[in-house]
Amino acid sequence: MNAKCNAWQQVSRMTGCCTCPTNNTLATFQHLPNSTKVSTLCRDRMHEFLAEELAAEGAALQKQQQQQQATEGEAGTTTSSQPQVVEDEKEEEEERAWRAALDRTFRRVDALASLACACGRIVRPPCRCLLSCNSDIVGSTAVVAVLVRGCVVVANCGDSRAVLCRGPAGAPPVPLSRDHKPDRPDELARIEAAGGRVIYINGHRVRGILAMSRALGDRMLRPEVIAEPEITVTDRTPQDQCLILASDGMWDVISNEIACSVARQCLEDGNPSPADDEPAAGGGEGAAAGPEQEARCSRAASLLVRLALGRTTWDNVSVVVIDLKQRE
Fold it and tell me: Which superfamily does 9-180+215-323 belong to?
């Protein structure tokens, strides 16, 4: 539960693309048109809110465990005879705590988005500077991944995506998030239940305006567009190769399979080549990235950005690549 993060470190030149390697936390935030202030707010504040919420959940969980132990002691009972049951219950509680902390973190950032100005100030009433604009019509996507004991926790709001590259070359990638598109059946049903409409104007759009069904900010489109993240918890395996977080500007023109192939080749060889990609030696949870490993991740992310731009993507592109293997 100790996921303190002192600062997001920018790992590419694209706005909102950041990582915090010392605490195994990474994220990408993709601003919508004229919405850089929201993605900047996410970059600057989300890690602070997440640290606070995790600390609160950790304290509550510890208190609950102490009370349970005290109750068992008074009753003269113990669960030590069933260690597997105890461990399963502990994992369930930790997962619940992660979900609760991430959900509250996204809600806090969303609430602050309505007060953020492009000049960097958080003010109420709206800022009077020349950069000020209507905060109800700006927003950002957010996909956050945290590597914790034996698993990857991903929270997603919008149409950015997290994909896990697992297994030997050619193995199917493992999506860790689902895009929040207005034409996704469950999202379409939710939007219509809220009294909204999805109109096709150069793609499916909420009220004919926004091409996603969830976002941080964009209060003009509430209650159809919500800021509630979808959260997944995926077990780690020794076959995990790398993790890719990117905005829809990349995923619109590059498939999960191609993205994983390019990233794997960069991480294995230091640069893309047609050579066959074999699983890297080592594995496990992974240690802090060294300079060479960081350089390979940076090259992989930069190459994916250039590839997306070369395929004439119509959107901004943000990419984060993290190596999950110990490599020679």
Answer: PPM-type phosphatase domain (3.60.40.10)
Q: What is the pLDDT of residues 277-314, one digit of tens each?
A: 333 333 344 445 678 888 999 999 999 999 999 999 98
Q: Strand runs (DSSP E) across the chain, as ranges?
A: 9-10, 17-20, 25-31, 139-148, 151-157, 161-166, 174-175, 198-200, 204-206, 216-217, 230-235, 240-246, 319-323
- 145-177 pLDDT per residue, tens: 998 878 999 999 999 999 999 999 889 999 999
Buried b (16+ CB within 10 A) or exposed e, 262-295: bbbbbbbeeebeeeebebbeebeebeebeeebbe
Segments making up each domain of the chain, as ranges: 9-180+215-323
Can you give the pTM of this predicted structure? 0.80
- Estimate the crossing angle of helix 83-113 against helix 36-75, to 10 degrees: 150
